[in-house]
Specification:
Strand order of the largest sheet: 1-3-2
Helix content: 55-70%
Low-confidence stretches: none
Radius of gyration: 19 Å
CATH class: Mainly Alpha
Length: 150
C-alpha cells in the first residue's frame, strides 16, 4: 500500500496514475518483445497482428482506427511487417487507390504460439491479483481510457 504522508502526492511517481500506467506499459512491452522475438514480431505490431487474425483483410485506415495509432505510425509498422513477411497487401477491388492488408500464411501459422505467449504474460500480470482485483483493475482502466479518449 502506498503511504499517504506527502502533502502533494502528485509530486512522487508512485502517486501518479500516468506514471504508474506508463511504467506498467513499458514493463509489458519489454516482456512481450522478449516473448515475441522468436516469432519475428514486436509488441508494437500486436494490435495489427490481432486485428488481422480473423483472416479478414483490412485497409490501412481501418487498422489505424482499430489500433488507435497515428497514420504515420501505422504506415511504418506495416512497412516493417511487410519487409519481415508478416503481412501481404492486395489491391482493394472497391478502391483502386487502396490496398487490403492481411496476415501472410507464415504469420498465420504463428498465431497460436503468439497468442499463447501473450496469454502467458497477461497471466503473469494477473498472478499478484485476486480475480476480483483483476476485474476491477480492467474496469477502472477502461474508465480511464474512455475518459481520456473523449
Amino acid at each position: 500500500m502506498i503511504e499517504d504522508s506527502k502533502p502533494y502526492k502528485w509530486q512522487t511517481r508512485e502517486h501518479s496514475l500516468g506514471y504508474m500506467v506508463n511504467w506498467a506499459a513499458r514493463l509489458f512491452a519489454r516482456e512481450m518483445d522478449d516473448a515475441l522475438r522468436p516469432f519475428g514480431l514486436m509488441s508494437g505490431q500486436l494490435p495489427v497482428f490481432f486485428a488481422l487474425a480473423d483472416g479478414q483483410p483490412r485497409s490501412q485506415s481501418a487498422l489505424v482506427r482499430l489500433a488507435a495509432v497515428e497514420q504515420s505510425t501505422m504506415a511504418k509498422t506495416l512497412s516493417r511487417m511487410e519487409r519481415d513477411g508478416l503481412i501481404e497487401r492486395t489491391p482493394d477491388p472497391n478502391d483502386r487507390r487502396s490496398a487490403l492488408i492481411s496476415l501472410s500464411s507464415a504469420a498465420s501459422e504463428k498465431l497460436p504460439d503468439i497468442a499463447a505467449a501473450v496469454a502467458t504474460i497477461n497471466a503473469r500480470s494477473h498472478a499478484c491479483l485476486s480475480g476480483d482485483e483483476s476485474r476491477l483493475l480492467l474496469q477502472l482502466l477502461h474508465q480511464v481510457v474512455n475518459g481520456l479518449a473523449t
